Amino acid sequence: MGRKVTLATCSLNQWALDFEGNLTRILKSIEIAKQRGAKYRLGPELEICGYGCADHFYESDTLLHCFQVLKSLLESPLTQDIICDVGMPVMHHNVRYNCRVIFLNKKILLIRPKMLLANYGNNREFRWFSPWSRPRYVEEYFLPRMIQDLTGQTTVPFGDGVLSTKDTCLGSEICAELWNPRSPHVDMGLDGIEIFTNSSASYHELRKADHRVNLIKSATTKSGGIYLFANQKGCDGDRLYYDGCAMIAINGDIVARGAQFSLEDVEVVTATLDLEDVRSYRGERLTKHHKPYTRIKTDFSLSDCDDRCLPTHQPVEWIFHTPEEEISLGPACWLWDYLRRSGQAGFLLPLSGGVDSSSTACIVYSMCVQICQAVKDGNSQVLEDVQRVVNDSSYRPEDPRELCGHLFTTCYMASENSSEDTCNRAKDLAAQIGCIYLMEITVKRWPQFRAKGGSARENLALQNVQARIRMILAYLFAQLCLWAQGKPGGLLVLGSANVDESLTGYFTKYDCSSADINPIGGVSKMDLKCFLQYCVKSFQLTALIGILDAPPTAELEPLTDGKVVQTDEADMGMTYSELSVIGRLRKISKCGPYSMFCKLIHSWKETFSPSQVATKVKHFFRMYSINRHKMTTVTPSYHAENYSPDDNRFDLRPFLYNTQWAWQFRCIDNEVSKNRNG
């Protein structure tokens, strides 16, 4: 009869700028959708690059790599004979849009830009994108050459159009458009569009899921229709946790749904539905609509001719988590994503025996419960991740308490003011959840500096403890100096980390760079040296001459023959002058790794070979991405430099990166090979 359609939506645990991993997860979702008989697959918002790219959206690299991934998707056999709807940024007439790219059998059918942007709460979409402001208008978009060569298309439709198959019509909404009082699905429904799709990056907040579900039910209660909702899930690089809830509704009823909290990286939700149910529902409710959408016609059917015996999905009841369950599940999933992607081996928590630290401990235990359940359910990715974290390829977690002993260490930091009651409460909780519990740390050997035969980890730990003691003592003196003199008040602690050290993370988190305010945090090292030369001349501060002649050093490693051997530039692997150039390219010129390399092979050609430039660019981005988390706690600084990495307002970026930069560095390696062979 040709009226029953099988549709797929999904929740994907995408990661900002992890193009390699994002592509793998997209292809996996398409494969599952096809296995379940779906002819249409919807993915989350900006799924190719990840929603949380923040100021990386400014970079031409982000657009380039998105099209490279799109090319891989178009070429893949998995994307044949199914309409694929993916999300990525697209620049059209030099304006950047948040778009859906809909394609079928190596042909792009439509690029639909977002019309109503999210600019509230944690969303800052107006910072990076412009809204498409021409309802029901479609124009031509000129494809990049790499896509033209593959598809044979020079231009494709771009705008607020809908897709018309041989048996039905689909229209797109993107995330916040569902929450807006002028949601596009209203007009689309009145114009006969039967299937609405919504690709989202909707993050978790307590008591939010029911609002989302009610909006989707309402969208199809008013005028009928089928509604597909896709969402990102997991931590994609910052403070937010995207909580899935992929679902499919028809005529006001939810008929298929995914989990709100899950350790599955790829979750696909499918449903088989009868288009005649939509048409019957609308028959007594709708009147003719006089402002039609541009219909992009495609010679493809979502239904089969012989579908008489195909069962359709029936309404399901959505049982929402209580706030207590949400606290147990959401932060636990976020912690697991952060742990497995950070490359660390577990968590440490000072456990005081009070409500707050006990709550954090319970969330870690909840994480262990979910990991064990996921492994029991056959989740091979979770098993692989936990084996890597514990550094044991044969390990298989079965008991949450036992796993907690591998991943979680707590310590009771007693002082002479601590009571035995709090100590016992902390000890009892640690015993019940199975974590390691330390009353004191005993080691069989004492850590050594590298100069005395110690490892890199020992060397770094000993440097960091010195740096952090400086911060503690600085605040102690600031609070007590005037008291010791019999004067009222306290002192503001000033920081003294420059913009280049912040850019590379060449400082210890919570060391003496942590202060109340920092007057030089927005100034480069090169400019500071020029400033000191100015001070020598203007203020006759001749002591600065020796300071300027000395090599910059943190002085955290032992002296050799009474001489300083540790220098900042040696530790960083580049000079402050080079770093200043790189910093300006990153922020001002909006360069990612690949485009930065392409610029530097010309500007540094007299000094470095292409392979040496590649090494320096890769080294910088590894350092930058490993240490970016430090910028979330950096001291408020005077703003002076236009390449400042200040995370508070000026330079918004993720703080959890895939530090391998696999896709980006491969593009650099390809260019190095071309230069070598050329």
Tell me the overall shape: globular
Unreliable runs: none
Number of helices: 21
Q: How can the largest sheet be summarized?
A: 14 strands, mixed
Radius of gyration over all CA atoms, rounded: 28 Å
> What's the total number of strands?
19
SS strand fraction = 15-25%
Structural class by helix and strand composition: alpha/beta
Q: What is the average per-residue confidence, as pLDDT, rounded to a whole number?
A: 92
Helix amount, in percent? 25-40%
Distance between the termini: 60 Å
Question: Layout of helices and strands, plus pairs?
Answer:
Elements: E1 4-12, H1 19-35, E2 40-42, H2 60-75, E3 83-92, E4 95-104, E5 107-113, H3 125-128, E6 138-142, H4 145-151, E7 155-159, E8 161-164, E9 169-174, H5 184-190, E10 195-200, H6 209-223, E11 226-234, E12 242-243, E13 247-250, E14 253-257, E15 266-274, H7 275-283, E16 294-297, H8 323-342, E17 347-350, H9 355-376, H10 380-390, H11 400-407, E18 408-411, H12 420-433, E19 436-438, H13 456-484, H14 499-504, H15 525-539, H16 543-549, H17 568-572, H18 576-587, H19 593-603, H20 610-627, H21 662-677
Parallel strand pairs: 1-2, 1-11, 2-3, 8-16, 9-10, 10-11, 17-18, 18-19
Antiparallel strand pairs: 1-15, 3-4, 4-5, 6-7, 8-9, 11-12, 11-13, 13-14
Helix pairs in contact: 1-2, 2-4, 8-9, 9-11, 9-12, 15-16, 19-20, 19-21, 20-21
GO molecular function: ATP binding; glutaminase activity; NAD+ synthase (glutamine-hydrolyzing) activity
Family: In the C-terminal section; belongs to the NAD synthetase family.
Pfam families: CN_hydrolase (PF00795), NAD_synthase (PF02540)
